[in-house]
Design brief:
The chain is mainly alpha-helical. About 80% of the residues lie in helices and about 0% in strands.
Length: about 290
């Protein structure tokens, strides 16, 4: 039997994609009231769970079921290039799914529940018969929830050793909705392959300009709601910080809309950075509300 090289397995798991869920996990820790005196083993376990394991599993699943599309869009990836031999892409996806569930069970029932939902969505996103990614509305929603909401919930559950406060759940959900727009921009790079393979991404359905406008609106609207909620919860400083970050995003969005496809990657490196900084600001606001009615 031919085995894949460790470097190829790591490439399949795409470490660069682990940042988003790990950042959301940190936001969950902060919002749940984590302190430096808390158990660091749980934190390390949570970081491993949300990044290398669950996110890594989702990347392996996606690449296995997208191997024919990737042969058109990105033929140098591990599976279409042949560097990941045979069915090893599938085996890696299954192995990391199992490891994720085992670690999640050790971290508590709330964490296990979140991991089960996240992994189920990861498989449903890529694998038939559901293959949610075949329609950008459903697929982007699944990814947004897996990348932002569920890791945030996981971090809060680890920090509090209990079900998170409802306000934490609401903000995690709002930032998940906003991530739908980020995922739409990420689809711009694969329009040709999506058309040929029948994947109805939002850039395919709405055109690049229409999808870019939608993405901007979907990213901005939840942040407006977050600002209103923070003000309602008497956290005006945090609301102003999120508002300022949103205003800066609005300026960058205008540049994006002038050349959506050419500047999609640029916006994901700039505007999305401001978006996730707003997440952290909102998390600190919730930290101050921990235990309050």
């Amino acid at each position: 039997m031919t085995y894949p090289a460790p470097a190829v397995v790591l490439e399949l798991l795409k470490p660069i994609t682990w940042f988003a869920p790990m950042w959301a996990f940190v936001c969950g820790l902060v919002s749940g009231g984590f302190t430096l005196q808390d158990r660091w083993a749980l934190v390390i376990g949570g970081v491993l769970l949300t990044g290398p394991l669950v996110c890594g599993a989702s990347q392996a699943v996606n690449d296995w079921y997208d191997r024919h599309v990737d042969a058109i869009n990105e033929p140098d990836r591990p599976i279409p290039s042949g560097r990941m031999p045979g069915r090893w892409g599938f085996y890696v996806a299954c192995a990391f799914t199992g490891l994720s569930l085992a670690l999640a069970a050790a971290l508590g029932l709330a964490v296990l529940g979140a991991a089960i939902v996240g992994l189920a969505l990861a498989w449903a996103y890529s694998a038939p018969p559901l293959r949610l990614k075949a329609n950008g509305w459903w697929g982007n929603s699944a990814v947004g929830l897996c990348y932002e909401g569920l890791p945030w919930f996981t971090g809060a559950a680890v920090a509090s050793a209990a079900m998170p406060d409802a306000r934490i759940v609401w903000l995690a959900l709002l930032y998940s909705i906003g991530a739908h727009g980020i995922m739409t921009l990420n689809d711009f790079k694969s329009v040709e392959g999506d058309v040929k393979s029948g994947v109805a991404s939002l850039p395919v359905q709405l055109g690049v300009t229409g999808a870019a406008r939608l993405a901007c609106g979907v990213m901005a609207a939840p942040q407006i709601v977050v600002i209103a909620l923070l003000a309602h919860w008497q956290r005006p400083v945090h609301a102003l910080i999120v508002g300022a970050l949103l205003a800066a995003q609005g300026f960058l969005m205008m540049r994006l809309l002038a050349d959506p496809r050419g500047r999609a990657a640029w916006y994901n490196a700039t505007g999305t950075t401001l978006y996730v900084l707003g997440m952290l600001a909102a998390a600190f606001a919730l930290r101050g509300l921990a235990g309050a009615p």
